[in-house]
Records
---
Amino acid sequence: MLRKLLVLVMALVLAAPFPQLPLLSPAAAQSPVRTVLVSFDHQPGSQDAAIIVSLGGAVKRTYTIVPTILADISEGQLDRLRRLPGVLRVEDDVPVRALSEVMDWGVDRVDAELIHPTNKGTGIKVAVLDTGIDLSHPDLVVTGNVSFVAGVPTGNDDNGHGTLVAGIIGARDNDIGTIGVAPEAALYAVKVLSSTGGGWVSDIIAGLEWATNNGMQVVNMSLGDGQWPWAGEQALTNASNAGIVLVAGAGNKGNAGGTGNNVVYPALYSTVIAVGATDEQNARLSSSGTGYGLELMAPGNNNYSTALGGGYGYLTQTSASTPHVSGVAALLLKAGFTATSARQRMRDSATDLGAAGWDPQHGQGLVNVYQALNFTEPPDKTAPTTPIVISGTQGNQGWWKSNITVTLPAADNPGGSGVLETRYSLDESASWPLYQSPLQFTTDGQWRLLGRSWDNAGNEEGPPNWLDLRVDKTAPTVTQSVTPTTARRDKPGTLIQIFVDLFAADIPNTSGLVYTNRRIDDEYGVYTVDLGPIDGTYYYSVEQWCQPNDFSGRVYTFTATARDKAGNTTVSTSTFTVTRQ
């Protein structure tokens, strides 16, 4: 048990009826600094930045694509920051990394060469969010470049990954080296990953913001990892709403056994096309991510491409499959399709692999630009869509503080055959019960709800729509005891030792503690002191008698406060009383 000594000394000052008494404690250890994304309910400005600075923080970047400030701030100030008016979320920045290693055919497999006589994607703006692009490579024309990696001034590649990715999208048709899927697309090097191939979600948000503000039409992200903070997800949503086709690798975590999900973020978000990888025989690479997030497949095995230093090399896994889809998207946009219709057409025309229709191993199938441009849509080819709607009382940071009701109001496309049925899953697609009425969630916990529908023409929705449901109605528990609870008054200046046991906890599988605090007050207002977080047993020495205030006794109140991420708060008090002799 942690035992801390904090001595409260009440000096006897006869001249003043309410003496101002010092709190004597060891110097607090310096709090570690955290890099956080601070999201507001409004677009933050200079005043919001100034408040962060006033808390000892350093503002690193203010975004416009999301209402968020990136800042460095000490851990000890995080709760004050969270409690500021207008602050919705304070989230740690999250690391990301390139999705594969540099090793090596796919233009022919997606049939891009059949389109090139009339369409090479001329002028379509494709942003490659990666380690940069070799700006002097003779087989690449880089229209623009920018860097969001600290200390790196340009989008010139210093790793090699981004140059390999860029070549698959847009290596020139110039009789040297290789040729990309869209060889006349306008490539933009948006450096968000360092020379090690790693980076941060905060830099990717900046890259998405730049892409949106500069009219990019396709964004390629051969990168990913764990779940992103809200600001990253919202940046993707806003970029998609601006008409950008977002493409990302499904990741290289392998087979999910037909259920579950190994698709990484950002590909898992519904605004992003999640791309898996196939080999020369159209078989899924064993390392290619699978699950309910998978949308399309593309070549991703030993693909020959441009390499750092003006040469050529090979790229494998979903880092290679992703730029094939980005190149196909560029060709479709050049042919006059919108971002939405290009994505839908790629799915509808994909070559089915594995089980009939969408499946978690192969998504909708292998992308093929010739088929996408030339196939005739049947009267009803498009599957319904299944939105997920929640009603209840919202708490903080994506949690709900009440029972919630979830509805799945599926709708078919205009002129379609109509929705036949809707099903849902709460076990990551292991089972799919029929949805017949609103779903009720009345206990604390977390669930990932998947929803998908079928229409009367036999079209099935895939990948399924999904949403995380998080309910935390229960405040944290705080246990507190004071030993002893009373003592008899002796004489002025006499101290008494008090032990205070304090423990705070949130129930399992809920939001978790975000703030705890303990304080001491006495009935005369001499002590009103915050003493820091709750984390064990504390030993105090307090004065029994503060003349002339307590001739009839004296009461000290110990208050403990605990709050969880959802916003539920518990306040517990206990007292120590000095009685008259």
---
Amino acid sequence: MKKPSFFERSELSATLWLFRREFAVCVIFTVVVNLLMLTPTLYMVQVFDRVMLSRSEFTLAALTLVMLFFLSVMAFAEWARSRLLVRIGVKLDERLNSRVFNASFEEHLNQLGRNPSQAFSDLTNVRQFLTGQGLFAFMDAPWIPIYMFVLYMLHPLLGLLSVIFSLLLIGLAYLSHRLTHAPIDKALEAGMQVNAYVHSKLKNAEVIESMGMLDDLRRLWQARHQRHLGVTHAAQDLAGRAQALTKFLRYTQNSLTLGAGALLLIEGNLSSTGAMIAANMLMGRATAPIDLMVSTWKSTLAARQAFLRLEDLLTKHPQRDPGLVHDSPHGHLRIENLSATAPGRAQPILKGLSADFPAGEVIAIIGPSGSGKSTLARALVGIWPYVEGRVLIDGEPIESWNREELGPFLGYLPQDIELFEGTIAENIARFGVIDPEKVILAAGRAGVHDMVLRFPRGYDTSMGEAGNLLSGGQRQRIGLARAMYGDPALIVLDEPNSNLDDAGEAALVKAVQELKQQGKTVFLITHRMSIIGSADRILVLYDGVIQRYGPRQEVIDALQPKTAPQGNEGGGTAPTPATQPV
């Protein structure tokens, strides 16, 4: 996907641009807040210059009321600004959450290796930055020269001090970032590696316990943990030094500003003690945005990286074309010069396959392990991203179909059964609107209805995360029922009997025969030859190439080893393979 040029807005930038009016209002509130920040300073100067000299209680009361009014306006402006930014963050999330969900799903579907939950964390980081102190620091930053100018008007020396301390704080922040950025990132990466290591091993706790592997794995974990502690300690030590130096500079600034004000007052260059104290307060206001930037610098960088990752994700996975509207598919499928590859693999998995699969037939796909059967199954349902050639359903390319429209007419049982946290009925119904009759019909076809009724809550039984409360055979049969739910015209079953007992396999054969009688197109990818008796056609796949394809009996006869009579008296036979081994 082509990235937008400099003058073009990306989808994420264009979404933020929609809130330009709201951001403009926030800027107006920021102007009000920073103007009224001068209220305490002016109040102090007036108290020292007027009230202390005139000793007028009325003047003090009037000044106090004016001061309270301006501070109330300032508080309201700060509250309104914060509330508006929170609403911007919520609306931004509402506009982007579905897009991020879909793009993250496609990223994971394309097997690009990223953590699918990272995109949602990135969206949260961007939203929190918009509603946090980091954005306020950038909004307040343009007022730094204004406060410096006010200090300069009091006396040029005070203005010079404000410039010097601002430059020192900025330089210290930059130096701190340069020194601590790499160690902190290294520490975070080491921590994630340790957590990932522990998580991956705990997933196989039964294997670890049964074969006494715990001590060796703990030794490997401790080595990683000690390395994590070492880099974390080094990063924290550097960060602590930078923080101590920043505090020293801040305290020095306060004291030297007060000392400079006293010196100017002694020499008669300041009008009063109030001006001296006011100069100290103005110095604090001039460098406050810098302090805020320094304290939020890490979160600001994290938000920037999150923004760039989100921008890249949405650019690589633009909003899906809704596709054309088609009539209900009949199940006629054809592949033309279909090739499939995988990242990091030099040789293609599938090599220019072409075949026609008539509607209403059962096609068995057989072949040795690693021949590309599962990749072909994924390509047939349009979920393998690295393909060339065409997969046609009823003469139309599968990518031209709206996936939401096509989904109910497709049934797919992957080799690795993936069920989802929820009830049995929800999983069979694909988490759509549950039709009890269709759920029971699909469960009956898969031979799982009686088993489900034996559960305490029947179809309302929760299966746990990824169906871990069920056995492998039970998960496979429920996955089979899900594939046959509704009225699918095309069903692809990848090793559907790998975890089934005799009764389950008999139910599978019966279900395939019923689907065949109803005119459904069924693909059976299998290593077990007992199920191919239901097939109309057999496709033999070897090393990514179609070795044989045709009517079942014709292919079986071709695969049978030819025999030749022997010259010995025993009449023995010597096998001569008709084809390469399958």
